[in-house]
Write a structure and sequence with these properties.
- Keywords: Membrane, Transmembrane, Transmembrane helix.
- The protein is mainly alpha-helical.
- The longest helix has 41 residues.
- It is elongated.
Length: 620
């Protein structure tokens, strides 16, 4: 056990400065109870001998009282300062460490640090108490060292047994895995066994103190201090036992992760044993919920900028800093997801051929169809894709590939497949237009003074061509995907319909959603972007109106007409879909291969223009 604790310390904190800082923190934490015990002894002396000193040594008594209150105030102040700075010290140690772990081990690393600190502080306090007892009563102090050593040796034996169990759990097959209740129960029983041994040792030590006090070999004030000190010392041994069993679990996960990534969730899928946030792992659970502050908002902005720069390591670092002092809000988790999505698309950041593209990621984390746009560009070219903010002016040539974003087109934009959100939209007329989504967007562009564009087609329909998608076995069910703006509608769904969310952004999550869709017998949607995905994947689809929305109907018509299809029938079903007969509304439509070829050719041409940086040719 002691070797594992030392190994965890050197593994978590690799820099000499961070080791010294953490060591100083642990020593200070450990010495606080000892200092408080000395303060208690001062108080006991004042209580027991104050009356007799009041007449003879009034000045000395006043000074002794002042010294007691000063020592008491100092010990409490240090106590609060240390607790407030523990997370900050660990975070600095992690950031300076050269030992990198996969992202899925980040929470386990924090859990290891907290359990390491708890166990280490307990051990140091036991040693300090033993030395203090030797100073108060050498004979009893030596005897207590023997008792304490025996108890710690037994706790170490229990720890080794618990560590072996935790490693065995990781090797269990799904169908023979030990249940969560049994796992937790065994861990708690081992922790309590160590606490029981500590209580028995304390009772034996107290019997010796009582015997020496009654026989007159021990002063009354020292006996009181020893009584309180023994309770504190062996309580720490009990805490050490509980922390050691939790540390065994964390150590098993990190050890397995070093052998090949087994620190990810277990195959049995049981929540309690898959995450380091059970009732006792305090890495995040004991942290307060986050509240918006200028500091946290600044970290979020820096994390997003790091993602846009393709620096995933910095994204992880900022995320760890946000988690170090509070439990992140959902909005912060969404920001982190978006930063990681930016990073995956833009990395490696140093790639000379990075292509800037404009798409709409808000409200974070955005939607699958919007994030699919840059993903398709990356899969088509093999080049990283940088993010061009829609509302930021730039002279840098950039792609505008899909979505209802023509209002944000600039002189430096190269447009292929994007459209407008309605008749009232005013597209930017000065970009280089190779194509738009459909004839309705083209008409809006002409009214705004832009070019007469006759090339149509949303590149989202290229998804099946450009992405390697698995085809799961059919489930015999339907999937419903509503438009993100309708998230607050309360829907009533038939039993054979599953609702899926389009609110994903990371490339793997986007591909995962498309793969899930292919397992359904059909898709019901009010989202034009989902209709484009169904056309790309060849899935039966029913377009429905959950509420009257002219803008969505406009985009649906524009999309279909731009791909050479008849206008889609939009079924006004409302929020109650129980009796809508959704299966009968499904329709399978296929985009012609020559249309797909033309859309892909225009996309490749747009990529070439942006890649060449042909700013001189960006006007028509």
């Amino acid at each position: 056990m002691f070797r594992d604790l030392l190994g965890a310390f050197t593994g978590l904190f690799t820099e000499r400065r961070s080791r010294l800082e953490v060591s100083a923190l642990l020593l200070t934490m450990a010495m606080l109870p000892v200092s408080e015990l000395l303060v208690t002894r001062m108080f006991s002396q004042l209580v027991l001998h104050g009356a007799e000193r009041l007449e003879a040594e009034r000045t000395a008594l006043v000074l002794a009282g002042a010294g007691f209150f000063a020592a008491f105030a100092l010990s409490r102040a240090i106590h609060h300062v240390v607790r407030l700075n523990r997370v900050r010290v660990f975070r600095r140690g992690f950031e300076s460490s050269q030992a990198e772990r996969p992202r899925h081990q980040e929470a386990w690393r924090w859990a290891s640090a907290f359990e390491l600190s708890t166990a280490s502080v307990a051990l140091i306090q036991v040693v300090a108490f033993c030395l203090l007892f030797v100073w108060l009563d050498p004979l009893f102090g030596v005897l207590n060292i023997g008792i304490g050593t025996a108890v710690l040796a037994l706790v170490a034996v229990i720890y080794r047994r618990q560590l072996a169990r935790q490693l065995a759990y990781l090797d269990e097959a799904r169908d023979t895995a030990t249940g969560v209740g049994e796992r937790v129960g065994r861990r708690l029983r081992d922790a309590e066994l160590g606490a029981v041994l500590a209580s028995l040792a304390m009772a034996l030590a107290l019997a010796v103190v009582l015997l020496r006090a009654v026989s007159g070999a021990l002063a009354g004030a020292d006996a009181i201090v020893l009584f309180i000190g023994l309770r504190m010392m062996y309580s720490q041994v009990g805490h050490l036992s509980a922390s050691a069993m939790r540390f065994a679990r964390v150590e098993a996960r990190l050890t397995a992760g070093g052998r090949g990534g087994a620190a990810e969730p277990d195959g049995n899928g049981e929540g309690d044993e898959d995450e380091p946030d059970d009732e006792a792992a305090r890495a995040e659970v004991d942290l307060p919920p986050a509240t918006p502050t200028p500091h946290r908002n600044r970290l979020l902005r820096q994390m997003l900028l790091a993602g846009q720069d393709g620096d995933l390591a910095q994204v992880d670092a900022y995320a760890a800093r946000l988690r170090a002092t509070a439990r992140p809000r959902q909005e912060e988790l969404d920001d982190q997801e978006v930063a990681e999505a930016f990073g995956h698309l833009a990395s490696p950041a140093e790639h000379a051929g990075a292509l800037p593209a404009l798409w709409w990621p808000r409200p974070f984390p955005g939607t699958a169809e919007n994030w699919l746009t840059p993903l398709l560009v990356r899969r088509l070219t093999g080049h990283p894709v940088g993010y061009q903010k829609p509302t930021a002016a730039t002279p840098r040539p950039h792609l505008v590939v899909s979505g209802s974003v023509l209002a944000h087109v600039q002189r430096s934009s190269v447009v292929v497949g994007a459209g407008t959100a309605g008749h009232g939209d005013r597209p930017g007329p000065d970009g280089r237009y190779l194509g738009v989504r459909g004839p309705l967007s083209a008409e809006a562009l002409r009214r705004a003074g832009g070019p007469d564009v006759t090339a149509y087609g949303d590149p989202l329909v290229l998804a099946a061509r450009l992405l390697p998608l698995a085809r799961p076995e059919p489930q015999g069910r339907l999937a419903l995907l509503r438009h993100v703006s309708q998230s607050r509608l309360r829907l009533s769904l038939p039993d054979d319909v599953d609702e899926l969310s389009t609110r994903v952004s990371r490339p793997d999550d986007v591909v995962g959603l498309l793969t899930r869709l292919t397992a359904y017998d059909g898709v019901v949607t009010s989202d034009p972007g989902v209709l484009a995905l169904c056309l790309a994947l060849g899935l039966p689809c029913a377009t429905v109106a959950l509420e009257p929305r002219e803008d969505l109907a406009f985009v649906l018509r524009d999309l279909a007409l731009g791909l050479g299809l008849d206008e889609p029938v939009v079924h006004p079903v409302g929020p109650d879909l129980q009796q809508a007969g959704l299966t009968g509304l499904l329709e399978t439509r296929t985009v012609a291969e020559d249309v797909l070829d033309a859309v892909q050719q225009r996309l490749e041409e747009a990529v070439a223009l942006v890649g060449q940086g042909a700013s001189a040719d960006l006007t028509v």
